[in-house]
Design a protein that fits this description.
There is one protein chain. With about 240 residues, the protein is α+β, with helices and mostly antiparallel strands. Helix content is about 30%, strand content about 25%. Helix 3 (about 80-90) runs antiparallel to helix 6. The protein starts with a strand and ends with a helix. Bound molecules: flavin-adenine dinucleotide.
């Protein structure tokens, strides 16, 4: 756990953003990472739980999930498309799902996150509040560039339409996938996202899924193995979509 030198619990997200302009201050959401890592850096925690950032709303064309919505909420809310709820279930065990939040998942940008892959194929847009006000950014951009300091993810908005299929390979059925492929039929064609082949989940061309990929190997799989898995799993996910169409 980082060395917590102070704890704040603001009542509004505007107050949270004001506190977060101090370089040593960090947003605290579910705390599964922030309270779990062993980084000794002194930080002041700005707890977002009083900022009214939870809840899911459905406008028909889009589904909006407040940043403090937990992964367990995604599993149980019937308005959440199956591809997202199944990815939330696969992401973490239930003990952590009740704590971990959508906003924390986006801010962390874990390379193996099947939930981030599902959000990518559902065309997720990230609502942020920073010192210059509100902005909305595609998830892809946040994963590529990282979240700017002093900003809070306030919500994640997705297009809930279209079916999804995911194929993955892991060392055991309950282990984190080494590589996964998630495909979705969108109004304007197919979308395909991969995990385990870059330093964050990536959207790729369904017609040429491994173009430009340069995976880094580790104890779970070499770069070549990951590239090969990406090709095979992408093919399976796309085929599964065709079969259900
Ligand atoms: C494959 C995989 C395995 C994992 N395994 C584990 C595990 O075993 N144990 C575990 O504890 N976690 C694990 N995680 C990670 C973690 O559960 C998720 O990333 C989680 O969703 C983090 O959410 P949180 O709300 O708990 O974040 P927190 O721990 O509260 O915060 C995480 C980071 O995000 C920032 N942050 C949080 N919310 C916001 C926001 N709204 N706006 C801006 N920044 C924000 C925090 O400042 C911090 O830097 C795993 C993730 C993956 C993908």
């Amino acid at each position: 756990m980082p060395r917590a030198i102070a704890y704040y619990r603001p009542d509004s997200v505007e107050d949270a953003v004001a506190l977060l302009q101090e370089p040593s201050h960090r947003p605290l959401a579910g705390g599964t990472i922030l309270n779990g890592d062993d980084d000794p850096t002194p930080i002041a925690m700005v707890d977002l739980q009083g900022c009214s950032l939870d809840g899911i709303s459905d406008t028909g064309d889009s589904l909006r999930m407040g940043a403090m919505t937990t992964l367990q909420d995604l599993v149980y809310d019937e308005r959440v498309p199956t591809g997202l709820s199944e990815a939330a279930r696969a992401e973490l065990p239930s003990t952590l799902r009740t704590l971990a939040t959508v906003g924390g998942t986006v801010a962390t940008g874990n390379a193996d996150s099947v939930l981030l892959a599902a959000l990518l194929v559902h065309e997720a847009r990230i609502e942020l509040l920073g010192p210059d006000g509100h902005e909305t950014t595609p998830l892809e951009d946040i994963l590529t560039s990282g979240l700017a300091a002093g900003h809070v993810v306030t919500a994640v908005e997705v297009d809930p339409s279209g079916g999804c299929a995911r194929h993955s390979t892991a060392r055991t059925p309950s282990d984190t996938p080494i590589v996964s492929a998630t495909a979705r039929v969108a109004n304007d064609g197919l979308r395909l996202a991969l995990t385990g082949v870059a330093d964050h989940p990536v959207l790729v061309d369904p017609a040429d899924p491994t173009a430009g990929l340069d995976p880094i190997g580790d104890f779970r799989g070499s770069a070549d193995y990951r590239r090969k898995l990406a090709e095979v799993l992408a093919g399976r996910a796309l085929l599964a979509l065709e079969e259900t169409a």
